[in-house]
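Write out this protein's structure.
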Amino acid sequence: MEKEKETGVRGGLTCSLEENDRLLRSLLQADKSFDMVDRGLSIGGRDAHIYFIDGLCKDELLQKLLQYFLDLKKEDMPADMEALSARCVPYIEVTTETNLDNILYSVLAGIFLLVIDGYDQVLLLDAREYPARNVSEPEKDKTLRGSRDGFVETLIFNTALLRRRIRDPRFHVEVHQVGKASRTDVALCYMEGRADPDFLRRIRAQLDSIQVDALTMSQESLAECLFTKKWYNPFPKFKHTERPDAATAQLLEGNLVILVDNAPSALIMPTTVFDVMEEADDYYFPPVTGSYLRFSRMLIAVVTYLWTPLFLLLLQNPDRIPAWLSFIELAEESNVPLILQFLILEFAIDGLRLAAVNTPNMLSTPLSVLAGIVMGEYAVESGWFNAEVLLYMAVVALASYTQPNYEMGYALKFMRMITLILTALFGGWGFAAGIGILFLALLLNKTVSGNSYLYPLLPFDWAVLKRLLVRRRLWPRSKEQ
């Protein structure tokens, strides 16, 4: 009954090729899809039928296998499919199957299916070859030093990039299928003995219990299924990376890495705010340089959040501006309230960013020049913006690109806009309230494992915090040194 419920078709495999062929054609609906290849042939004096998806199988390998099968004689055919698989199939990745649901999933995933008359089992030969691009360096996660390879959309390539770096039998990769319609392959990667076993057990159970039709947006859909609480908190609960070396480092530190088929990045969990702000360049330079880069990134993150709200607060209270900061006052009278100028530019910067993403490469340079002229000189001359406001927003826009994580950059942007609005409405009290909202958002946020998002700051752990703030030697000093 369970099999009938899954497939929607009564019956199962029999020893009759005619009945099996009719059943499989009905389930696969081969006559409605041009890329579903099915054809008959004769193997060892018995009628047979093959099914596969055109474009997902290695043509040369299939041609060699079929030539071998066609050369089999009647006396070469054993009595059962298991023996045929063991003695007569010159290929490694081959299995026998009777479950119709597994057969359907395998064929639709690109596996070659062979059905032979007289057997109530089928042969599944994994001769898949998915379309894939080169494992070149990702555009987002570039580094000044380090490897130049990156994750791609093919799951098996991504797991191979991790295997190449971790040659330890304790490194495990579990595959789960998520989505009733898409049956998307999701790989859960971890180091046995280093990953938290309770957290690993919980994530494994969550992956198996997800009830969705499909992971339409790949990793983001999976992330929303894994973490359903406090969706309104903008600070990221996961760390994304397109770099295999960064994912490998997280695995060796005891974190879990999730790879989703068709997604060119890894999902790392659990992660705190300090983990999200780390970058590969912190470790590809000597400790002093790496510590400086890390400290600079954290300081710039604070500056991008406070820069414009603090400027607005000082201009609202010119009598409190120290003499040595008198130059920050506006040189010309503003025609548009400062808060509106800041908010308009916040949205305009995002508009330019979206336009740059969707602009053809051949037009990106002239349109960038045009946008710079319009947003710069003409915007000031027209009276819409003050030159000082454009300058400070340009500093914030450029500084935001120092964040390696998009979600963290936008979280700081949202908090900055809230602080701007509160400062414009309530002055100093609003500025303080905005900072308080930022700390509450960080304090009340939790990692996927349920721990504090501010660890090791809260709860305080100086040994771990020192390691996160100051880049140390990767290897301990030897006794001889």
